[in-house]
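Re: the 376-residue chain
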Amino acid sequence: MDLKNMLTGVAERLSSLREERPSAGTGYRLMAMTADIAEVIETLSREVLERVRQEPVLDADVDIDFDVMAEEVLSWELTMADGNLQELTGQVNDALGRLSETLSQISTQLGRRHKDEAYAHLFEQEKRRYLSSGTLRRLRQAVEDWLYDVCNGAPTLEEINDYVIEKLVHMFEKGVFNSKVEHLQRATRYSGEFDFSLLDDDHRLKKTIHKHYSEFRKLVDYCDGCLVVNPAKVGRHFYMNRKEENAKAHRNAFLKYMYKISLAQEEYGKLQTVQTVGEDSSLLPDVLATGLAMKYWRRLQQAGFVDEHDQLSPTTTRKQAMYIADVFSDKLQMRSKWKPFQELWHINNLAQEKWEMQETGKSPARSEDIDRIFDD
């Protein structure tokens, strides 16, 4: 269906009828005009309106701005000086009104579909279409080759960041955002995310790297040091640029390099976890890292007495720290009551706090909460 040609044909015949001097054949041409408009309405309803009502995706092959077309058709009106033709002229104008209403309905239906859920659905469709099982295997293999050939199977955080930057630059070199960057006057700077200044001075994207990254970040969120695709934004980008030259190649390049980046970022997350666990476990002496002790540490964290690294919270007082250490050491039957806690928390003279409590007979605030933490 060539909607533009159909509507152009209607407009031309309307113009011809306006200029025509009424004759014996004018009435037949008016009836034919009404029939032609009815055919356009039927075609639109069958091939566009019904489809966009039923399909929850944005792949209707429509390149018309229906709001604009509805307004244009609404302005089309036929007047005939011959009173004998007024009824037929009214039928033409009624048909034009129905055509404008049909165009408006299509615009409304498309507007309802153009929501984040639909764009996200479109992104998932494109991802499944490109990232077939064979493609996924090849991309995973490429990342594994990098892990073992370049990083000897144990990448550092710096090596992973360098790899991500390299893949971003490859994506930009493929021209994924070129059409946008050409018209971008000012780029948003995302300082601290990646140091693109490490690129060679003669790199062809050196001068526009921030513009490319600025466009890229309109589609991808930056969370906890990782780049995370926003499906709705990417789906909207795919849809809006679907008719551009090399649109499919650019779409595939984006999906390809983002998949490699996501695999590299998985390694980043694993490495961070290992380092965090190593740091946390090194803080606790063996006597305070038993299974029973870890149960108490979790309870103390939940109650707000210590943080996730088992260090005293800012609101925990010296007296409360002494009380926790006293009950904790009794539960674990520790030979040395105070030393492990004093070294862990970088605090001294907990025994003195215990002596003062015994002298005054006054327990610290929230002592009952602490007792409940150590109830088995």
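DSSP finds 16 helices and two strands in the chain.
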